[in-house]
Amino acid sequence: MHSAEDIFNFKATSDExxxxxxxxxxxxxxxxxxDETTSPRGFIDLLGAYQDGNLELDKNAxxxxxxxxxxxxxxxxxxxxxxxxxxxxxxxxxIAQKYGIAWFKxxxxxxxxxxxxxxxxxxxxxxxxxxxxxxxPKRGGMIPRFKMPIIKSGRLLPSLSKKSFLNSYxxxxxxxxxxxxxxxxxxxxxxxxxTIGDSLLYILNxxxxxxxxxxxxxxxxxxxxxxxxxxxxxxxxxxxxxYFESFIDDVDAIIIPEATCSAMIKHDWEVFxxxxxxxxxxxxxxxxxxxxxxxxxxxxxxxxxxxxxKSRDIKMPQTxxxxxxxxxxxxxxxxxxxxxxxxxxYTLKEMxxxxxxxxxxxxxxxxxxxxxxxxxxxxxxxxxxxSGADIVSAECSACRMQISNSLYNENIDVVFKNPxxxxxxxxxxxxxx
Length: 433
Ligand code: SF4
Ligand code: SF4
What we know:
This protein has 433 residues and is of the alpha/beta class.
C-alpha cells in the first residue's frame, strides 16, 4: 500500500519504476494504442517530468492522461505495486483545475449531487423516452432515434426504468429476522437496471434476512473521482459517511451489488481523504469498511445461500461466462464468490481472459473518448462469443453498459445479467415461479 505522500509525489513514483515493462502487455490503452506514451511506464515517466517542471500540462498531455482507463491492470502485475491509476486520478484534478470540466459532465455531476433533481430528470426521461429512443429489450438497452450531442449515433444505452429502485420499496422490510442488511444500490442499478435490486430482495427474502433500504443514500462519487471533480467527491463521500454512521450499528452489513461503487466506498474514500490530510474523515471511512461488502461476497461467505441453492437441485439450461470486473477482482479480490454461487445451478464456461478490462473507463471515456471505449470493447465481446455461453455475468453495471453495447456493435447474441439476477432466477425456477 502506498502512502498519500507517494501518490502526490509523481517524481518518487517515477523513480521507483524499474522499467521492467511487465505492465505493458496488460494495459488496456496500450493494447489498442501501442505507444510508449500511452502505457503505465510512459504515464509515470511523463508525470515525473511534469512534477520536475519539464513537461507542460498542455492539451497533448491532457489528452494522454485522459486516455488511461483506470482499470488497475498495471498495478496488479507491477513488482513495485506502483499506484499508476491513483497518480493519474490525481493529475486529472490538475487538468480539471487548468481546463475546467466540460459542461455536460458538470451537469451530470450536479445531478449526482442532488438526488431529487436526478429523480426528476429520470422521470422526465422515462415519460418521453419513446420520442427520442427505440427500446431494445432483448439487448437490455435503447438506441437514440436522432443524432444527439456527445453520444455517438446508433450506440446502445441503458434503458430507463419507470420507477427507481429506491422509490419502489419501503425503507424497512422484515423477511424473518435471520440477520439484517442495508442495501447500497448504485446509480445505474437505481435508475436503469432495477431488476438487480428486485433480485437481491428476492434472495434476501428466501434467506429470511431483514432489509433496510436507506433512502437518503447518495452516489458513491466514482464518476466524479475519475474525472478530477474532487469538490463533488468530497461532498458526496462526507454526506454518505455521516448517513451510513446513523444506521451502521443496526445492521450486520451494507451490501452492494456493484463493483465500482463498492471499490469507491471501501477503498477510494479513505485514500481520497488521507491524501488531502482529512484524517478524521479517512478514519471514519475506514471504520465503516468493516461492515461493507460486495453482495455476492457477503451472501457467499456470511449466509447459507450456497447450501440453499444446492438443496433446490435445479439445473438451469443457460450457460454462463463470468467477466471479472476490474473493481471486483483487481481492487477487492472478489472473483471466487460469484462463481461459487452460480456454479450451484448454472454451467460456467470460462472465457479466454475473464480478467481483461471491458473498456468502460468512466465518463470521459464514454463520451469524448468513446472511440477508445469502442475499440477496447471489441476483444471482450469476441471472447464472450468464443466462450459459447448464453449469458455473460459480472457484478458491475458499468461493465454491463459497456459490454452490452460492445455485444450489440459486434452483433453477438449474448445477454448480460448481474449474478444476483441469475441466482434469483434459479430460486424462482425451483419454486415454479
Ligand atoms: S490503469 Fe489500465 S489503462 Fe491505465 S495505465 Fe494502468 S493498465 Fe493502462
Ligand atoms: S510493471 Fe511497474 S515497475 Fe515495471 S515498468 Fe510497469 S510501472 Fe514500471
